[in-house]
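Predict fold of 3-methylitaconate isomerase; 383 aa.
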Amino acid sequence: MPQLRIPAVYMRGGSSKGVFFHARDLPPAGPARDALLLRVIGSPDPYGKQIDGMGGATSSTSKVVVITPSCRPDCDVDYLFGAPAIEAPVIDWSGNCGNLSAAVGPFAISEGLVEAPRDGLATVRIWQANLGKRILAHVPMVNGEVQEEGDFRFDGVAFPAAEVVLDFLDPTGTDGSVLPSGQLVDELDVPGLGRLPVTLLNAGNPTVFAYAESFGLSGTETQAQVNGDAALLERLEAVRATGAVAMGLARTAVQATVERPHTPKLCLIAPPQTYQVAGGKQVPAEAIDVIARMISMGKLHHAIPGTGAVAVAVAAALPGTLVNQLTGDLGGRQVRMGHTAGTVVVGAQAREIDGSWQVEKASMSRSARRLMEGWVRVPAEIR
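Predicted 3D structure, encoded as tokens:
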């Protein structure tokens, strides 16, 4: 039988890549759609390479996005993000990808879903369907088309491009809570590791913050050093999964590992230090406020997820969190964080009202580019 042909666009957003679809071209949400998207991306692959699919064999490049016109009066498009596992037949729909959020506005404009000015900035109002939150994407336009080329550089991406500014509005948990436990610092009792101080945060994506030193790390380790240490990754997953239970996101740690690998994220933090990233670039200690290393889908991220950067910025704005204990009071300025590939700056506006913290928005800059457009093909038996 001939293969199925499904319209799709392959896009880079920030330091991630994913396959973008119109919802109208896919089956309804459910097992059939998941099976099709897994086959598109090349999962599950016991070899861990996704050779027979569009995935790139890393958490940053194994992603799918489903877009539909929004029925909400305050939004233009609905954006649903899926994180396919590489070796397991699972797509985690529980969270967002902050990096690919930068590609949603350009996709919506180029696909004719949103009207935009001929020149200047187009503001695309996005409903992030996974989290039930709004994002404003400010997309540059030139001669009636999305501007993709530019001089904006982002560590983790080799080439410059046009800047897309993102405002994550009220980026806290779906119930409005920033601190799901109500505490700025908790202690997790992790089997085999004992009690560890952590901050549990709902912002961007649910995130568990822990000191790198709790695992005998400096925070400046490379991807190869972390991802090549199976015992270390197992300990890190134990903390993440235990945190998921403490945040009410999973009934058991086993369920968190098997069914919810995308969220919560685990962020290892450390005080500013001078270190070197891939390609030889040196990050001086005085250029950053905190080191943040994000574990995503079981591995150390090659840069930092956009939602992870939002979580770090929000945590830095709340006096007493582990992150804030390292950054100190920043006086309202943006947080300069050192990550695996370099640095990034993100700002968050938070205030305490009647004893609870509220976050108005978090803002960051990314870039996006359409890499390929046409059809993806999958075997007909997937139908």
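The helical segments are 31-41, 98-110, 223-227, 230-246, 253-259, 306-317, 322-327.
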